[in-house]
Each structure stands twice: as C-alpha cells, then as structure tokens.
Amino acid sequence: MKRRSATGGVYRWQAHWPVPGNRRAPFAMDGTCVAAGGLVRNYLVSLMVLPLLAGCAPVPKHVPAVGGPTIVSLNPCSDAILAEVAAPGQLLAISHYSHDPAATSMDLAMARRFAATSGAAEEVFALRPDVVVAGSFLPGATRRAFERMGIRVETLDVAHDLGESEAQVRQLAALAGRPAQGEALIARIEAALDKARPAPGSVPVDALVWQQGGIVAGPGSLIADLLARTGFSSHSAARGLGQGAYLPLEQVLADPPDVVLAAGGERALSHPALKGLKGTHYEKLDPSLLFCGGPTIERAAERLAEVRTNVGARASTSSARTDLERPGKPPLVLSLSKDMRKGPQT
Predict the structure, then answer these.
(1) Residues 189 and 215 reside in one and the same domain
(2) Do the beta carbons of residue 153 and residue 263 sit within 8 Å?
(3) What region does 116 belong to: left with phi over 0, alpha with psi -120 to 50, or beta?
(4) For the chain, how are helix, strand and coil distributed in percent, rounded to 5?
(5) Is residue 54 part of a domain?
(6) How far apart are CA 150 and CA 45, in angstroms?
(7) Which of 225, 43, 171, 166 is nearest to 34 (CA)?
(8) Are 251 and 272 contacting, i.e. CB atoms less than 8 angstroms apart?
(9) 227 CB contacts (<8 Å, ≥6 apart)?
(10) How many domains does the chain have?
(11) I need a labelling partner for 52 at 20 to 30 A (CA). Which of 7, 202, 212, 252 fits?
(12) What is the spatial distance between Cα 173 and Cα 201, in angstroms, rounded to a whole number?
C-alpha cells in the first residue's frame, strides 16, 4: 500500500513510519497507541483507522481476572520467584533465558509453562502487562518507553546473601498481591538450608568455587553465603580474592583446597591434574546455582549438602586406607589357628 506525502512524493508503507500530528503515539494492531520511540509499527491497519491516530490515547488497562496486576518478567532470577508466587494467568511471560537449558536458573519444565520474551519493547507492548520486572541494567530508553505507556517498571538487583534474596521474594510477592505465597516460599528455602546445615562442631571444608574462565566467587556473593551455611569455607576469600578474580590452574595445583567445585565446562576446570591431587576432592557444580536466589537456593543447598557428604565419606575412606598403609605399623594379619583350621573336634 502507498500514501502520498505533502510534497507530492510517494512513500511505501514501511514497517515503521511517523504518525501525522503525534510523534509519540504510534498505533498497535488493535488501533490503540503504542509508544515505540515515535514510530508506528506496521500491523496492516486499515486506512479508515488512520485519521483517528492523531488523537489516540495510551493502551487502556484491563482488570485481570486473577485479581492482581499482570506481569512480564525480563530477568531470570525474577522469573523463578514469580513462577512460584504469582497466580495462574498473572505472569504473562518470562525472559527467554529461562527457556535456555544453558542459562535458566529454574526448572526447565516449569519455565516452559510460560511464554518467553526477548525483552524487546514491541514484544512487551503486545502483551499489555500492568508491570514489567527487569534487572537493574535495563536500558534507560526501554524503561522510558514502558513508562510512557503507563507500564510500571520494577527492577531487581543481584542478591548478595540470603537476607537480600528473601527481601526480593517479599518484594515480588507483594507486587503480585500474594504475600502469603512469598512467605511460604521463604519457609521452604529456610527448611532446605536447615536440612543442609552440618552438625554442630563440624570443621568447615575448604572449598573453591571455580567458574568458567578461571574466575572465583568473592566473599560478598550469594554462593559464598550459602557455602558458609552448609559447612564450607571459601578458599578464594581466605586468599584475598574478590568476586570475579582470576585464579590460574597452576596456582590451584600449587595451593589446592579440600574440594574444587567446578562450575563450568572448559578444559582447565576439569584438567586431569586436579583429580590427581591427594587430599583434594573434585565435584561439579551447576553454574545455574550461583547467581539467583529464591527457589534456586533450595537446589543449591541440596547439592552443597551432597558434596559435603561425598567429601566426608571419601575422607573417612582415605583416612582408613592411610592408617593401614602408614609406615612402621605392622599390617593386620588374620589367620586361623591350627586347631580351628581342622574344624570342630568330635
């Protein structure tokens, strides 16, 4: 389709074009306005609708049947929390990261019950949510576009410890109008940590969380807090290494921890030399357990408790073997007396 300009030139109807008399109010497929940087998305709207665009208003809000605001989540950490606390039909979409097996922080089957969005403004506008929840790095232009449309924007920072994670759960549960569901989730998280807590008087296990690229988890990270709560001490923090500091393989081999928690798939993290270290245990840790709080903590606590059990079992076996092989200690010899070899006397 074509339209003629005021100067007599002819323009083709492109995917984006200005709205006469209203640069900030482009239209959507239903004829209502969609703020997208002053341009109109081409949804093949009839020419009969065009004269109405000069005075079009923001997208009218609808009252959802669920009784709370409808929400789109653009952050994988908020995805996991909202999937647990929101009412059915309230969470319109989650971030595309949660549909990616390599990036999700939540159960993949649960994530795929929800639609996913890349976070592009036009995708979110089409869903017409009341609220968008995003990370603190949401681009300013995108935030302003949402706000021009009357969409409330809530941001979520990175949780650095259990307290901050629980505050996020309460924040999102309150946003959804379901505080009781938030408290229930927090109770589950705390129960998982209680179950993973070592016996009183246990000596902490020196653990190195070694991530992709050879970087380490710092003392102010969520995983460092979870390590302390489940019976570990941070090998990297004890050596003054902060969040994201690089630790080469050579240094790990020269100064090994009690356990290496390899959170990545690159060769250095699984080098054969690591498994040959005497007194050092090697375990895999899913990288998806490192960064998000909320329900992810339940899985992290379970895995860390499993690792600690494995380390303890292997240490006991190793200690018993060392006792048997210790130089100067006579070997234990089991033999039968001559009489017993003959069997019982009749």
Answers:
(1) no
(2) no
(3) beta
(4) 40, 15, 45
(5) yes
(6) 23
(7) 43
(8) no
(9) 207, 209, 233, 234, 304
(10) 3
(11) 7
(12) 37
